[in-house]
Amino acid sequence: MLHPAPVSGPVAHAAPIRLNVSPVLARPVHAQPGAVRDVGAAPRLLASDALKLHVGDPVALRSGSALVVDGRTGQVLLSKDAGAVRPIASLTKLMTAAVTLDAHLPLQQPITITDDDIDTLKWSHSRLRPGTTLSRQQLLKLALMSSENRAAHALARTYPGGTAAFVAAMNAKARTLGMRQTHYVDPTGLSPQNESSAHDLALLVSDVRRYPLIRAFSTHPESMVEVGRRELQFRNTDHLVFNRGWDIVLQKTGYINEAGHCLVLNTVVQGRNVIVVLLDAWGRYSHFGDAERIRHWMRHAGRTLLSRVDTQRGAIAD
User: Fold this and answer.
1) Alpha-carbon dihedral of residues 93, 95, 98, 102, nearest 10 degrees?
2) pLDDT at 311 > cutoff 60
3) Regarding predicted confidence, which is higher, 1 or 120?
4) Residue 16 clears pLDDT 70, i.e. is over it
């Protein structure tokens, strides 16, 4: 069953990171002693020269764009075409969740799915039939965990001012976060006009990982949901959530034909908190395979310590 969580909005003391570029980024470094899963000890992340940085792809990834960033220091560990603007599919729903929570709307308020929530662009399948009533919190969980499109659309439709105001708030938040290559036209990600870059999505993940509900719901494996007289099982769309070898703080998958397979992760590898963005992977499981390759690379390749100049170098802002 879906149960209320105690905190909805971002944690006040948590802060996003900066992107910190340095000349030795093509190899992973040792995790610092005592590294923990904390997401809030690093300074604010700003758009930076990381877009121009060529770190390279030592892992031979299948994804068209990729970015791996240290979640505490902002150090770019791997970058592959991180500035390319691409459709982002259901990665959109991370921003949908953040805008919903930022509005501080009642999470237990009942919301009924209507015909307006039916996808008439892709005609994607949904088990939430018109007439189904769930709480705003339940819809938020289904949107993040199972990438439920009608749930995401209903969240936007019931926002003050309706869907148009909601999408405007999505774009306003993107501008606030410095996501200059990002544009939203719908709250589900079904439109290929929802576009961003790996760089911008790292900024987004750095921000939304501060929201306890987004962390909890995006990584929840499965839930039973009462829909009328029926009880339906919804599962997480990310196969890595079911893998005990992964320590995932936050995740979201996405797929439409125009975007390929997409994945963002905030995860812990060897005690090191990292943000991983993978876009435009072709092949049903290729984005998961790329994530596994990145984790293996971080565990076994290179492992050099930062040079003295790197440890003293500050983040590069605009």
Assistant:
1) -130
2) no
3) 120
4) no
Nearest to 117 by CA among 142, 164, 153, 159: 153
Cα–Cα distance for residue pair 207/191, rounded to 1 Å: 23
Tens of pLDDT, residues 150-204: 999 999 999 999 999 999 999 999 999 999 999 999 999 999 999 999 999 999 9
Judged by DSSP in three states, 137 sits in: helix
What pLDDT does residue 282 have?
86
Delimit the domains of the chain by residue range: 49-312
- In a 3-state reduction of DSSP, which class is residue 69? strand
Structure tokens given for 1: 């069953």
Cα-to-chain-centroid distance, residue 93: 8
Site of tokens 């030592």: 58
The pair of structure tokens assigned to 192 is 């290929």
CA separation for the pair 252, 141 (Å, rounded): 12
The predicted structure's pLDDT at residue 200: 98
Q: For the whole prediction, is pTM greater than 0.90? A: no
DSSP 160-229: TTHHHHHHHHHHHHHHHTT-TT-B-S-SSS-STT-EE-HHHHHHHHHHHTT-HHHHHHHT--EEEEEETT
| Alpha carbons 25 and 82: distance in angstroms, whole number | 14
Inter-residue contact 50 to 76 (CB < 8 Å):
yes
Rounded to 5, what percent of the chain is helix, strand, coil? Answer: 30, 20, 50
What are the residue numbers of the active site? 90, 93, 147
Q: Which of 16-25, 121-130, 200-209, 253-262 has the lowest mean pLDDT?
A: 16-25
Residue found by looking up tokens 């002693």 in the block: 33
Query: Would you call 11 exposed, middle or buried from its count of C-beta atoms within 10 A (0-12, 13-18, 19+)?
Result: middle
Fold of the CATH domain 49-312: Beta-lactamase (3.40.710)
